[in-house]
Every structure is written in structure tokens, then in C-alpha cells.
Protein: Ubiquinone/menaquinone biosynthesis methyltransferase UbiE
Amino acid sequence: MADPFQDVDSAGPEFVKMFADAMDVRQSDPTMEKIVASYLDRLPFAADSLTIEVGAGAGAVTRRIATLAHPTKVVGYEPSKGFVNEAIERSSGHSNLSFVVADGASLPIKDKTVDAVVMHTVLTHVTHPESLLAEAFRVLKAGGSLVICDADFSKSTFSSIPNDPLNICAQEFVREFVTDAFIVGKLRTLIANAGMEIASFDVTSRVVTSREQMRPWVEVTTKQMVERGDIGKDLADALVAEHDRRAELGSLYGYQAFATAIARKPY
Ligand SMILES: C[S@@+](CC[C@H](N)C(=O)[O-])C[C@H]1O[C@@H](n2cnc3c(N)ncnc32)[C@H](O)[C@@H]1O
Structure:
């Protein structure tokens, strides 16, 4: 099956709601908060500037940008109508924030009019990341900033023992919900090929220990494996039960690495 994040609306309303909630939860995680704060701190939010988020989802990051940048303008561009509806519902009270349905490879924006472009966990879900980077280059003003923050899914794991059976869920998530698990290793070349200069490139570890964050992954992956006939319902239930047992014991351990690249369009 193709990564559903390539076409979220086709994945159905249940998927939209579940992942809109999951992305809100992820953004409230202290490590994610820190990662986002550290790149937003480095963006100039001048009075008349425009910052856009490409692949804004249900707006978890866009709302943070809008709070920081207020009163200057922030627009989230997102190809899924379902996510845009969720984003609008979740962003009441942000007068400087709007959302537009648009693909990141074809933004309804004039050349050289944007001060900063943010792509947060988007490129790992697209088949042609170079198209999104070329579009970011087109819309950015000279000297404008590009922030790419993405998970290095090639390193994701739920293992806390050798051959940990729970890790099947992490492997399955990466296989079914990610387009390029190795995108992080390619970012610096992609950015340079798009004509931008890399100012910084950092990797931060994120450890997932909460039931709230890990259970959706376990539920969704086991459900799919059962639907495909790969495993029986008893094993799926056992994996969810093992997750819940560890949650109860406080021994859940999920590992993810997140890379943040900050680049500038040259003058
Ligand atoms: C994991 S979500 C991240 C959403 C949001 N940035 C966040 O962190 O909360 C990935 C997003 O990339 C979007 N996406 C997928 N293909 C895209 C494309 N070609 N252009 C723009 N966004 C895209 C999906 O619709 C989805 O909203």
C-alpha cells in the first residue's frame, strides 16, 4: 500500500481525525516542542513578513508559528481538504493565520514574496521532494529562510530487548506510512541542488514513552496486518496487550531521530 500521507483524503475521515489528533499530541511532546522552538527562534518575524508552512496537516506547527509571529501573516498550505478543515476548526483565535488547500509542488503564490518556508515532517512522505524544494526556492525572497524538519524513520524503533516483538509495529509503520525512510540522509544534497545555502543541520533524539503517543501506531499497524491477512486477530490483540502492559509498567520505549536543516536563498 502507498503511504496514506501522499493522499490523506483518500485514506478517509477516520484517518484524518485520528492523525490530526496524533499530530497535535506529537507537537505537545516536550522534545518536539524544543525542536520546533529552536528553529522558530532562528526565523525573523519582521512586522510585514510572510511565513508559510508547506504540508501543514491539521495545523499543529502552523498554530505555533502564528502565535510567535503575531501579528504578522502565517499561511498553512496543505493538499488534504480534510486536514485543512481540521486546521481551520483548531485555529480559532489566531487572527493572523489562514489555511489554503494546495500541493507543495504548485503553490498559489507569486515569485519571491515569502520570507520563510517551513516543511515539518513532509518530505519523508513525498515521492519527488525536489519539486517541493524548487517551489520553495521560487516563492522565497532573496535571503529568505527554508526550514526542513523531518524524522529519520530509518532509525525508528520500539525495541527494548533483542528481537523485540513490539518492534514489528514500528517496522510496519515505517513500511506502510512513510515514502522515503532515508530522506534525512539526502536532505543536504537536495537543498544544495535546489540552489539554497545550508546554514545549519542538526539531529535530535526523541524518545517516546507515553501510551498516548505510541498506542495509535500499535493500533493502526496491527489492524492493517490483520486486514491484509498477514497475522491473525489473536496476535494483533497480543501486541496491543503487550503495549498496554509496558505502558502500565512505565517501560514503553520508542526511539526516533529528527533532523532540522535551516537554509537560505542566496541574494
Ligand atoms: C505527517 S504530516 C505533517 C503535518 C504537519 N506538518 C505537522 O507536523 O503537524 C505530513 C503532511 O504532508 C502533507 N503532504 C503530503 N504530500 C504533500 C505534497 N505534495 N505537498 C504538500 N504537502 C504534502 C500531507 O497531506 C500531511 O499533511
In short: The longest strand covers residues 140-151. Strands lie at 50-54, 73-78, 97-101, 114-120, 140-151, 197-208, 254-264. The pocket of S-adenosylmethionine is lined by residues 5-6, 8, 23, 54-57, 60-61, 78-80, 83, 103-105, 120-122, 125-126, 132 (CB under 6 Å). The radius of gyration is 19 Å.
